[in-house]
Amino acid sequence: MATQDFLVELGTEELPPKALKPLSDAFTQGIVKGLEEAGVAFGKVEAFAAPRRLAVRIRDLADAQPDKPVEKRGPAVKAAFDDAGNPTRALTGFATSLGITPDQLDTLETDKGAWLVYRTVEQGKPTVELMPELVDKSLAALPIPKRMRWGAHKTEFVRPVHWLILLFGNKVIDTPVMNLKPGNKTRGHRFHCPKELIVPTPADYEVVLKQEGYVLADFAERREQIRQGVAQLAEKEASGKAVIDEDLLDEVTALNEWPVPLMGRFEERFLDVPAEALISSMKEHQKYFHVVDASDNMLPLFITVANLESKDPAQVISGNEKVIRPRLSDAAFFYETDRKTKLEDRIEALKPIVFQDKLGSIYDKSVRVAALAKKIADAINSDPALAERAAMLAKTDLVTEMVLEFTDLQGIMGQYYATNDGEHADVAKALNEQYMPRFAGDDLPTTLTGCAVAIADRIDSLVGLFGINQPPSGTRDPFALRRASLGVLRIIIERQLPLDLQTVCEWAEQNFTVLTEKNTASTVVDYMLERFRAHYDEQGIGAEVYLAVHARRPTRPLDFDRRVKAVEAFRQLPEALALAGANKRVSNILTKQGGDSIGETVDNTLLQDTAEKTLAAKVEEQAQKVLPLFEQGDYASALTSLASLREPVDTFFDDVMVMADDEAVRDNRLALLNRLRNLFLRVADISLLPTAS
């Protein structure tokens, strides 16, 4: 089958920068999915995305769908003809519906008799007929929250559309899409090349735009050019290092077709303002990259990326310096003003701010969190007074001028202002650390005071919202309780804190008077333990290991984690499969014979067979060895030791009849199995692991 390259380009007004890459990816995936469903063969797929265009190139696209054999079954032979051998209405109706005569049908023999069938070959549609519809469907399915209309057109898209290329080889597919007549003409840079450019073939697309149109259509190429240009400019002009935030780099890439990095300066006096405030102002509002020296100290420099090659770049730089100056002046003014009022004096200002209608104000939450943080600090051998103080001040920076203007600085400015107020270093640091980890993989609190406040704040939200029956549901999680749960688990595990979730949640529950749900603390603990599944899945630990530990419901996260790591290590041992199978067998036997009513005291005088005597001795020997290990939390060593029971367990089941006729002997054997199983249950329910087939 012949192949040609295919190109589609949709030209638009400037697309939303943060949405450009997702739109490009979705557009490409939609076309690929359509081709796969249509059964059309194709080669390499290349996506292009720039502020005024979305494009996809498909290499080696087949010129048609493959022909497809079709078989349609009609009536049974015995129902197709009457006694005289003439076609019945069932047969003529079937043939008529297909536009054929009965003699064009074949006979199909099956186990249930003979049937009449129509066999033919359905010819594949030409690719040029398929592509306009595939493109249209892909555009219609793009993740656009709110589409717009323009002029007198009924067409809707994220931005007005102006031109369309549909090329198959060097031929234009002339079927309209989005009310645009396709052609082979694109448009260059809005200022450097404000005219139409002919694209002879799909292979010429990015070359024409780059060489004639001053447009770098390849998003990845443009991104890397910006990265290198910004880094080189900082090093060349200031012997410094540009700090390149990946999200900002993506946004700047989506804003520029022909990127040209330029360096500007600002007054050194602004360096007295916390660097985070300067960076936020430059990054969020102006899309600038900041520059640091070899010691990571901020320099009075910024790098902007212009979308053109100016004949007078100094004018462009000067314009940007004029724009950033008032923004940095605002930040300096806010900082100076805020420091005149202590955080302690701002506590009252939290009372009118509602946290949640039923759970009260931010002030009410602060009081609860302070009480909880005090208990947590005591439990983790930290200073309860510092934790209580930090929790009461934790949200006060929300009412400062700086945070009201730059909301992403909450906590960060709190630390600066607390230090300015003369608060204890741990208290000041906790005001920032309360929000850690802010996202997956983020840093954790470094101080125990910060840990206490961070945990208390999250647990208060979890218990409060579950207690008024407002848990997360589906994708709806307005208070980010899933993230809060994972944050608590990470802090406790990675900082190795001896906290019990059940105890902490009960402490939190005592601080509320408005909760309507029963057993809120236990419900929250169950919810948080469920978050462990995703936590370990990211680490490559199978769900069966998580479930084995979860079955025992250990409520101390550090203990839960140690058990999971121990079971994961045990699972790698050659004895694991057999012992998991034995545990499953033992569990089934015990469940059928009374379950929890069965004791584990073994009477050695009732042991008869050599295999059960050996197993009883080995179990007792292991109990003496592993019980101290369990007390120390050394589950890995304990399970490794218990793995030695595989051989006596296998021999026992091969040689001994558990359900003996003598009731005393039978009960004694059940007690032995129960003692065996309970040793493993001190860690996890090993029976839930995969077993040998």
Automatic annotation (TrEMBL):
Residues 585-686 form the DALR anticodon binding domain. Its EC number is 6.1.1.14. The keyword Protein biosynthesis applies. It holds the Pfam family tRNA_synt_2f. It is found in: Cytoplasm. It comes from the Bacteria. InterPro entries: DALR_anticod-bd (IPR008909), Gly-tRNA-synth_bsu (IPR015944), Gly-tRNA-synth_heterodimer (IPR006194). GO terms for cellular component: cytosol. Keywords: Aminoacyl-tRNA synthetase, ATP-binding, Cytoplasm, Ligase, Nucleotide-binding, Protein biosynthesis. It catalyses: tRNA(Gly) + glycine + ATP = glycyl-tRNA(Gly) + AMP + diphosphate. The keyword Protein biosynthesis applies. One of its GO terms (molecular function) is glycine-tRNA ligase activity. GO terms for biological process: arginyl-tRNA aminoacylation; glycyl-tRNA aminoacylation. It is an enzyme of class 6 (ligase). Tetramer of two alpha and two beta subunits. Belongs to the class-II aminoacyl-tRNA synthetase family. HAMAP family: Gly_tRNA_synth_beta (MF_00255). This is Glycine--tRNA ligase beta subunit. It comes from Marinobacter excellens LAMA 842. The lineage of its organism: Bacteria, Pseudomonadati, Pseudomonadota, Gammaproteobacteria, Pseudomonadales. The gene is glyS.
